[in-house]
Amino acid sequence: GNTQQAGAFLFGGFYADQQPFDAAGNVSPTTPPVGEAQLDLGSGQRMATNHDGQSVFVDSGVLDALRNLSAALAANDDTQIANAVTDVDNAFDATQSLVADVGARWVRMDHTASALEDVDLNLEERLGAIEDADLAEVLVELSSRQVALQSALMATARASELTLTNYLR
């Protein structure tokens, strides 16, 4: 529970700069390992990036199960050992749901990263098209569209002047 990466305790929760557990595996009373770091995915979407030590080691029963197994092995009591092994199995099952949650988060982050890469590529293509535009070609295209618009407006104006009496003359 005291593993660090880039100076932060992985299971430290809100207190990632403080050691969450002592050498005996007890939770630090002054800086409990609770709370999840949040990552802003954009558009008001946030996602937790970790599980805190409280949920991984305490709430899941991992620490208690391992302590019970250690005590049962020291006492060489087969019944206590069997019970402790069951506790370890249950704690393992509880942590597996946390692992599945991390997997789902990973997939979501992967999809978000892929979507952002697509947006970035699209923006780069648009910028390239704008930067590579031939000014003379763009001006010719604009001029031809202006002529077409003026012709259409003149035709509309002439058509609106025509009435039945104009034909009868």
Write the layout of secondary structure elements.
Elements (H helix, E strand, L loop, with lengths): L3 E2 L2 E2 L28 E5 L2 E4 L4 H7 L2 H14 L2 H55 L2 H27 L2 H5 L1
Antiparallel strand pairs: 1-2, 3-4
What's the overall average pLDDT, rounded?
Answer: 83
Shape by Cα distribution: rod-shaped
Instruction: Note the run of SSEs as H and E.
Output: EEEEHHHHH
Beta-strand segment tally: 4
Please describe the biggest sheet, giving its number of strands, its sense, and whether it closes into a barrel. Answer: 2 strands, antiparallel
Q: What is the beta-strand fraction?
A: 5-15%
The N- and C-terminal alpha carbons lie at a distance of 100 Å
Number of helices: 5
Quaternary state of this entry equals single chain
Q: Would you give an account of this structure?
A:
The protein is mainly alpha-helical. It folds into two domains: 1-52, no CATH class; 60-156. It is 64% helix and 8% strand. It has five helices and four strands. A two-stranded antiparallel ribbon has the order 1-2. A two-stranded antiparallel sheet has the order 3-4. The protein starts with a strand and ends with a helix.
Question: Brief overview, please?
Answer:
This protein is mainly alpha-helical and 169 residues long.
